């Protein structure tokens, strides 16, 4: 079937747009200009841009700045997009020049054409509803895009924080389950002193709890928006009633309390708040990766490694080695962490590179931070569901390493002195005889004394040892 087209024009010239397309000329130009990455804009982001358009139409309509019928048509059109319709009409790529103007216009054009049809007009007849004059009334790309980006960070982080809460509970459950299992602690990959296997998992849970708090603190800055500042923060073309009420209306629609930036110039040109969020995500990535490194080490083997824990078997580990099972879940989390850390570098560079009253590189900042949040959410969910909850302790192997280690000799320092303890450790390493056996054979301490000194509670818990 032959495609039909309509002709639209803008400052640059004319362009043929598919007749039934809801997008218009500016969206199509952007699609052609920014064909650099096969990644569409986040639809969550699109919906938050749409939410701003809805809030603006309601406020402008309530004060008569926008004709009532136009306002109602725009609001109804926004609701269609907010109900997950017309996704294919958002054709602008995630990476784009122009500080997000193309993203803003793609949403403006789709809403305008939906509203035109509601008012019995034909797509592209912008005399009925104009993307700039009506849908974008009292707005600028420069206050819409950063505001929508912040709302999207808040939206996406709801799922991430829920995933982290589940991970923390799963780790705490393992800490309790493994509390009674003694293992050897290690520093610099060398035997150190005994600890409980549950204490390892308790430390993981504590770090995740700290990440949740850190992300929460950073997200507070996402609720400070520059909507109403328009182009650079002067609020040019904005009427007082709109300026006074747009943040309140958007808060109501979004479902969280938002506040206008105290300095709209700062709120428009500086993106350090996103650097802070990215930093919190990077810290989470570091903690997750470190945890997964530890899990892979503790599960290594299973016969020729540490073998202290047994990870759930999720898939065959080799196309050539029968019976091999790899720690694939921790491995994928490691890779997500590497990616997030790289994204953080990009975000920091892009935030720094903005000049004067606007940062032109908001698209890459939002693209990377959205991807970081989504990837971390998926990584945390699979780590919890497909790994942590199914971990089993290899108590016998843990006890074996404790018995074979000289780490327990550290507990003897207060009773026999560092020098004598070092001599015993050296002899144990050279001969393979256990520390306990050497101490008893040499008559340095009695069986009863050793039992008290090497009691698991004394070795692994703070107190009067």
Can you put this structure into words, describing what you see?
It is a single chain. Helices cover 58% and strands 7% of the residues. It has 465 residues and is mainly alpha-helical. The longest helix has 37 residues, at 141-177. The protein has 18 helices and 8 strands. It has helices spanning 25-33, 43-62, 68-82, 101-118, 131-135, 141-177, 197-219, 240-254, 264-269, 272-298, 328-352, 362-386, 395-404, 413-416, 418-431, 435-441, 447-453, 456-460, and strands at residues 5-9, 14-18, 182-187, 190-196, 224-225, 259-260, 309-310, 392-393. β5, α8 and β6 (259-260) form a beta-alpha-beta unit. The mean pLDDT is 95. α2 crosses α4 (101-118) and α3 packs across α4 (101-118). It is elongated. The strands form 4 sheets. A two-stranded antiparallel sheet has the order 1-2. It has a two-stranded antiparallel ribbon with strand order 3-4. A two-stranded parallel ribbon has the order 5-6. It has 3 domains: 5-137, Fumarase C, Chain B, domain 1 (Orthogonal Bundle), CATH 1.10.275; 152-226 and 261-395, Fumarase/aspartase (Central domain) (Fumarase C, Chain A, domain 2); 406-460, Fumarase/aspartase (C-terminal domain) (Ribonucleotide Reductase Protein R1, domain 1), CATH 1.10.40.
